[in-house]
Amino acid sequence: MNRLWIVVVLCLLVSGIVVAQDSDLITDIPLIAVFNGQIYRMEGDALVAYDACMPDEDLSVQFSAAPDGTKFAFATLPKIFSTAIGEFGSLGDMPPSTNLWLCDTSSDTLIRIHAIEGADAPFEGEVPDAAPITSVPEWSPDGDLLAWTSVSPDGNEYALWIYDIANDEKMAYPLDLPPPFMFPLPPMLYWGAENLYMTLLAFNEETFVAEETLYTYDFESNDFSNTVILLSEGESSDFITDRMMTNRGGRDEFAIHLFEGGWIIVNPTTGEQTVIEGVLLAYGQNGLTGLNVLADVDENFNFNWQVVSSNAPFVLESYPLHRIAFAPDGVQMAFADSTLHIWFGGDVRDIANSDGFADDVFARVLWGRTNWTSAIGGAVASAPLPTCESTQLSRLHEGDSARVVSEGTSNRLRANPSTAAEQIGQIPAGEGFIVLEGPVCADGYAWYRVQYLDTQGWTAEGSADQYFLEPIGE
Question: I want to staple 76 with a disulfide (CB 3.0 to 4.6 A). Which of 57, 314, 332, 353 is the partner?
Answer without folding.
Answer: 57
